[in-house]
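step=predict obj=Enoyl reductase (ER) domain-containing protein n=378
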Amino acid sequence: MSTAGKVIKCKAAVAWEPNKPVVMEEIEVAPPQENEVRIKIVATSVCHSDLYHLFESMHPEGFPTVLGHEGAGIVESVGSGVTEFQPGDKVIPLFLCQCRQCRFCKSPRTNQCEAAWTRIRQEIMASVESRFTCRGKRVLQFMGTSTFSEYTVINQIAVTKINPAAPLDKVCLLGCGICTGYGAAVNTAKVEPGSTCAVFGLGAVGLAAVMGCKDAGAERILAVDINSQKAEKAKAFGATDFVNPKDHNIPINQVLAEMTNGGVDYSLECVGKVEVMRTALESCMEAWGVSVIVGWTDMYDIAIRPSHLICGRTWKGSMFGGFKSKDGVAQMVKAYMDKKLMVDEFITHNMTLDQINNAIDLMKDCKCIRTVMSVSPQ
């Protein structure tokens, strides 16, 4: 029986309040409105940004919400005005939209989209509109995606169609972490062949940054993390050296300077801590080094001395790896299907959506790279 045009009742993991376990609930998902697509989520994974909202920023207006923004699924139905998608299409939801019409989308200088600045309230990390209700209450859609649900509704400018042969339980990871890290190296830092790089933080984003540095032709890639158990994984993605700051009694930027004759050419901070952002900047070559902030936080200010930049360093930020989302994700799926991109190697655990709190605990305790959860059968 067709569900098009009808309210769908389905399972979703609802975060009713911050710093508490999410709860599996039956929610109501309204039909897609104009320019919207309703998607059956097949697979999703936990990203640190989900934990940031739940355990760190904890904005009181950001709850109740359905988290999840790294997922993949199949179009169930479309609203009026939608011409790019049809039921049955395999798609990846996007937390960063691409309308292709605004001055940002038309500019090669940015991957931002003006529509994103009005669709998403950044302080609560949720879309202005929501098609979810539960127990008679409106439930927010985290980053406009909410992939911890069997069904979700998303504006067509925040969805990309992918190769129908792509395995959704693998390419779901391209909705955030892998593109974010890989693109930060390739698109934002613009790592050059023969260069020396340092990547701080070896979660999925950091490992993807290592992979990006390798694919860009870096000669030496120093992977930095306080967990020495990540050394082997980092080298599998292309790192030439592993450095644990805890193994040294001098600041890590000094350690890296000694190892690289004055500092690396490129440094990428993939942790989301302001102290590490400064250290990453100080670790790159004073005369020409480029340091990129990749890790997300909006809770603290950061302070540096002007002399850290005046001699020639460049300090940049990277959102979603600099990829224009619709185009970039489709390209990354193609690279994976052409066996030019590692994706499967990021997956350390497989679970079901019912086990969402276990998956969150694994991420919180730094015991996984990515946990992929099956949500709905294809």
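step=describe
Residues 177-189 form the longest helix (13 residues).
step=end
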